[in-house]
Amino acid sequence: MMQAYSSVFTPRAPSGEGLAGPSREVTVARAELLRLPACRGLRIACLSGCAWLTIERQWQDIVLERGEVLVLNDKAPVFVSGLPEARLRLTPA
What we know:
By secondary structure, the chain is an all-beta fold. The chain has no helices and seven strands.
C-alpha cells in the first residue's frame, strides 16, 4: 500500500541558501516527507526515533535508528520519513 504524505518540505536556512551553513535539527513524522536536495557530503545523524531514507536512483532504502549516522556520497536527492517519528541533525560538508 502506498503511503499518503500530509506534507513535503525542504529545509532551508533563514537566508534561503539551502543546506549550506551550520548544522540544523529537524523532526520528521510518518506522514511527512523531507526532501533533501543533492547534498554530497551531507551528514545525517539520527538523534531519536527511526528514519526511513530513500536516495533517488538507488534500489536499496536505508533505515537510520537512534545514534546512527549516514554521510551522503551521491549527488542525488534524498527523501526522509519518520518511523513513526525521527529527530535528525543535518550537517553540511
